[in-house]
Design goal:
Blueprint (H helix, E strand, L loop, with lengths): L4 E12 H8 L3 H5 L17 E4 L6 E10 L19 H15 L6 E8 L1
Antiparallel strand pairs: 1-3, 1-4, 2-3
């Protein structure tokens, strides 16, 4: 069995896997699947958002807009920096609304940097 790993910089919200599973129940996987990113393709958004669901260890579900993503098993080749306010309160509000519509949980949007294993 192989493992794929990508590191992401995203603007979004981080939930515990159990919190989302408990809230969405049996429809969790069917609802989130169209939004899930692939290890091998470019950044995939559906309706402007992407989902990284830790099905391997069941620790988290990250939901938001991916800003940058590494290739499988690689690091970032260049430095990524963002000015304060680069994303903007209006964009955050729109993103919070999209997250709410998808998983029906309140989201405080923030910058996330995580390595996601599959």
């Amino acid at each position: 069995m192989s493992t794929q790993a990508n590191t992401y910089i995203m603007r979004g919200a981080l939930f515990t896997y159990d919190e989302v599973k408990q809230h969405l129940g049996n429809e969790m996987h069917d609802r989130l699947r169209p939004y899930e990113d692939s290890a091998f393709k470019g950044i995939e958004h559906h309706n402007g958002i992407c989902v990284l669901s830790d099905g391997m260890n069941g620790k988290y579900v990250a939901v938001g807009q991916v800003i940058a993503k590494t290739e499988n098993g690689q690091g970032f080749e260049e430095v990524h920096g963002f000015a304060d306010g680069a994303f903007g309160a209006n964009k955050d509000h729109v993103l919070e609304q999209k997250i709410w519509e998808l998983i029906d949980l309140h989201a405080d949007v923030e910058w996330l940097v995580l390595t996601h294993y599959r």
